[in-house]
Amino acid sequence: AQKVTQAQTEISVVEKEDVTLDCVYETRDTTYYLFWYKQPPSGELVFLIRRNSFDEQNEISGRYSWNFQKSTSSFNFTITASQVVDSAVYFCALTRGAQKLVFGQGTRLTINP
Amino acid sequence: EPEVTQTPSHQVTQMGQEVILRCVPISNHLYFYWYRQILGQKVEFLVSFYNNEISEKSEIFDDQFSVERPDGSNFTLKIRSTKLEDSAMYFCASSEGTTGRGDEQYFGPGTRLTVT
User: Fold this and answer.
1) Residue A45 and residue B107: Cβ atoms within 8 Å?
2) Could you give the CA distance from residue A68 to residue A49 in angstroms, rounded to a whole number?
3) pLDDT, tens digit, for every residue of B8-19?
4) Residues B64, B55 contacting (CB under 8 angstroms)
5) Per-residue pLDDT tens for A11-65?
6) Of the partner residues A33, A44, A99, the one whose CB lies closest to the CB of residue B107
């Protein structure tokens, strides 16, 4: 069975600090896909990134970066120089493919001015 | 940019009533999904739909639930006899299915269902 664990329920930091959101996953599949979604207070789910199991290259997109390590089954998300607009709930998710997404419990991130 | 739309944005219904939640997936997408999120909790998979049939469903998706693609554009979720515990945000999602596995699922804005 697939499982995603986001151990950090809530994180609160001051603006401009760097913050890392942890994601640990479990799967028996050799091919799988990992995602991060952002859910702002308005409630919609906003896609941030997809990573397949064969691509362990870290990715950077502006202030966002992702660290995928198969050895530790982790797919962590770092926001550099956080801003108030980054305040949201962030979900990590896992899928085998064109199938259901299995979500973690989410991490509520609050950026204080 | 194409987007998934859902109607209504908020539905209030009495326990025992039937509700139909509507979704218009992105037009060239082949896979459709329903998820729900009880307030403050994680997003949970309900059902996936491909080639006009259910491809997978979760334990939550019992006989009270059904899905339909009545025409070429709409994708609906019906709850036959709502319970208080069905109160949640329901998200529709769609994905291309043409680039192989691991397509990004595009989510609609959600329908907040309140059962009183």
Assistant:
1) yes
2) 12
3) 999 999 999 999
4) no
5) 999 999 999 999 999 999 988 999 999 999 999 999 999 898 988 888 888 999 9
6) A44
